[in-house]
């Protein structure tokens, strides 16, 4: 079956906002009386805001009301937005523009699949809001990764089957989401971490569209 679409996560694939998430979550944890490390922050990659907050509160041994949790999640997001609102096209990861140029030349469709509700703002800040044929973000889904909803909705909007899609992800939860959605998955990062991915590369900078198509074209 031919590959017709590439679906991309945002954080860690197109841009790296992990440091901004970490700074905002750490500020929140500090205000609650404990700290989180960069290593701990790895557990939050690809995870929704609500689920991330639950993980942090469990780490700090805190049990809070839903109303208080909503308050804290909103506060964290405000701090995060202050940081990402300063982003520019300089924040696009190396190799991304060239890879997307190859995608267009190959005639493939593209979708963004991000659990972030701030994805539209980030895309606007970096000048990539008109690059995707479909944008599925946290405002359009009810389940975060590793649930496949963000990617299956992307395929549906592009009117292609999951078997015709390749997902590009840097997080374990995202790789699992792509696989559970019945799609091929390219993991961007370490093969020791992204063990479920069908193909692993350090970043989009080290890949070509032809390599990806050669790997998956005609499988299944």
TrEMBL record:
Phosphoprotein in keyword set: yes
Site location (Important for catalytic activity and assists the phosphoryl transfer reaction to Asp8 by balancing charge and orienting the reacting groups): 114, 145
The protein's Enzyme Commission number: 5.4.2.6
Catalytic residues, chain numbering: 9, 11
Alphabetical UniProt keywords: Carbohydrate metabolism, Isomerase, Magnesium, Metal-binding, Phosphoprotein
Residues reported to bind substrate: 9-11, 25, 44-49, 52, 76, 114-118, 145
Cofactor(s) listed in the protein's UniProt record: Mg(2+)
Keyword Disulfide bond found: no
GO BP of this protein: carbohydrate metabolic process
Binding site for Mg(2+): 9, 11, 169-170
Catalytic activity: beta-D-glucose 1-phosphate = beta-D-glucose 6-phosphate
Family classification: Belongs to the HAD-like hydrolase superfamily. CbbY/CbbZ/Gph/YieH family.
PANTHER family attached to this UniProt entry: 6-PHOSPHOGLUCONATE PHOSPHATASE, HEXITOL PHOSPHATASE B
Record-given protein name: Beta-phosphoglucomutase
Organism: Spirosoma montaniterrae
